[in-house]
Amino acid sequence: MMTDRQPDGAQAPGDPAGQKLEAAILELLAARAASSTICPSDAARAVGDENWRDLMEPARRAARRLVDAGEVQITQGGSVVDPSTVKGPIRIRKVR
Q: Are 90 and 74 in contact (CB under 8 A)?
């Protein structure tokens, strides 16, 4: 089974869904106030159709890649969290 995440956390070559999700996250954040956050589901809905729920984990992975690139932060309860250990609902915001 192939996924869009390699063992080292990198995006698999030729993963258009992952690239679209990363772009959607950045576009959604750019359209909002600097202090605003988005949910991974916002990006999944922007990229997917009625099957957007299937894109939830790929959206979370896209957010983690953007954290690694220094472009976004993942928060939970308003505090920045480690994306490799966080469980449960998360929010994504621009780096402050």
A: yes
Residue corresponding to tokens 């953007």: 66
Summarize pLDDT for 10-65 with one digit per residue, the tens.
555 567 899 999 999 999 999 999 999 999 999 999 999 899 999 999 999 999 99
Contact between 80 and 73 under an 8 Å Cβ cutoff? The reply is: yes
Pick among 1.10.510.10, 1.10.10.10, 3.30.43.10, 3.40.50.970: CATH of 16-94: 1.10.10.10
Domain ranges within the chain, ordered by starting residue = 16-94
The pTM (predicted TM-score) of the whole model is 0.84
- Give SS3 for 43: helix
Q: Which amino acid is at 94?
A: K
Instruction: Name the strands in the sheet holding 37-38, side by side, starting at the edge strand that comes first in the sequence.
Output: 37-38, 91-94, 72-76, 79-80
